[in-house]
Automatic annotation (TrEMBL):
One GO term describing the cellular component: plasma membrane
Keywords: Amino-acid transport, ATP-binding, Nucleotide-binding, Transport
DNA damage in keyword set: no
Gene3D superfamilies: P-loop containing nucleotide triphosphate hydrolases
Protein name per the record: Probable branched-chain amino acid transport ATP-binding protein LivG
Pfam families, per database record: ABC_tran, BCA_ABC_TP_C
Function: Probable component of a branched-chain amino-acid transport system.
Family matches, as PANTHER family: CONSERVED COMPONENT OF ABC TRANSPORTER FOR NATURAL AMINO ACIDS, CONSERVED COMPONENT OF ABC TRANSPORTER FOR NATURAL AMINO ACIDS-RELATED
Species of origin: Pyrodictium delaneyi
InterPro entries per the UniProt record, alphabetical: AAA+_ATPase, ABC_AA/LPS_Transport, ABC_transporter-like_ATP-bd, ABC_transporter-like_CS, BCA_ABC_TP_C, P-loop_NTPase
An example Gene Ontology biological process: amino acid transport
Domain of life: Archaea
Residue ranges constituting the ABC transporter domain according to the UniProt record: 12-258
GO-annotated molecular function: ATP binding; ATP hydrolysis activity
Length: 258
């Protein structure tokens, strides 16, 4: 693994990323840099390439050009599971827990090195690693942190949509992720819970986790994020503090034009 000496100020640098789907250029030379211990937001009109860029960074798509540097290492084209082991994880817009398993079991299965990490592995307690107790302690403390502790023995299928999102965050934390990528973490949740989820991300940021998120509900998200990138037609058209970016005429035009 090469350390290419990128500034340690940034946990992630995605440089001149290109991604094509047939004749369509979804991401056209976009560069984003994410500072450690920040919540960095990616905005832009529908179809501007945000999710594609996130998927390239998280290893779900191989880029047609550009580089992804995570923690000083060139991880361009690495698959998601390798990035997961390095400490970068992506949650999905629609969280997908194992519905019949309990909340606690769902969190435990996200632990790195746990036999359940391979989906084919049996779930019998006897097959768990000796460090099971330690993992259970860690899972409980994470459930406490995300406010789901009272539901630990409930099947995940019984959680509300907002609680599912919290469970997804808990699972990503259990994996030991230092950087979390999220596509619309507050989509479809009521405003109270949306604020709670973002306040929770702020708390985790203050504990050292870095977030790179896509969100359309700017009225709520802008209050909590540290830095914003705006995309249009596959390119980054503006970056800066939230208030600067939302008042930038180029950004406003991109939404109106879209
Ligand atoms: N798997 C795919 N195959 C073909 N085209 C795709 C694929 N994924 C995305 N696209 C196209 O690439 C462009 C960028 O899409 P992308 O989903 O990245 O935009 P977005 O900014 O995330 O949009 P939204 O805000 O609506 O989620 C769009 O024109 C989209 O139709």
């Amino acid at each position: 693994m090469t350390n290419i000496g990128y500034s340690s100020e940034y946990i992630l640098v995605a440089e001149r990323i290109k991604k094509r789907f047939g004749g369509l250029i979804a991401v056209d030379g976009a560069t984003v840099k994410v500072r450690r211990k920040t919540i960095t937001l990616l905005i832009g009109p529908n179809g501007s390439g945000k999710t594609t860029l996130l998927n390239v960074i998280a290893g779900f798509y191989k880029p047609d050009g550009g580089k992804v540097i995570f923690d000083g290492k060139d991880v361009t084209g690495w698959p998601p599971h390798k990035l997961y082991h390095l400490g970068m994880a992506r949650t999905f817009q629609v969280p997908q827990p194992f519905y019949k398993l309990t909340v606690l079991e769902n969190v435990l299965l996200a632990a790195r090195g746990h036999p359940g990490e391979s989906f084919a592995a049996p779930l019998q307690r006897s097959k768990w690693l000796p460090r099971e107790e330690e993992l259970v302690d860690k899972a409980f403390s994470i459930l406490k942190l995300v406010g789901l502790i009272h539901l630990w023995d409930q099947p995940a299928g019984q959680l509300s949509g907002g609680q599912m999102k919290l469970l997804e965050i808990a699972r990503v934390l259990m994996s030991g992720a230092r950087m979390i990528l999220m596509d619309e973490p507050i989509a479809g949740v009521n405003p109270t819970l949306a604020h709670e989820i973002l306040q929770f991300l702020v708390k985790l940021r203050d504990q050292g986790i870095t977030f790179f998120i896509i969100e359309h509900r700017l009225d709520i998200a802008m209050q909590y994020v540290d830095y914003v990138y705006a995309m249009a037609r596959g390119r980054v058209i503006a970056e800066g503090k939230p208030e600067e970016v939302v008042s930038n005429p180029v950004v406003i035009d991109s939404y109106l034009g879209g």
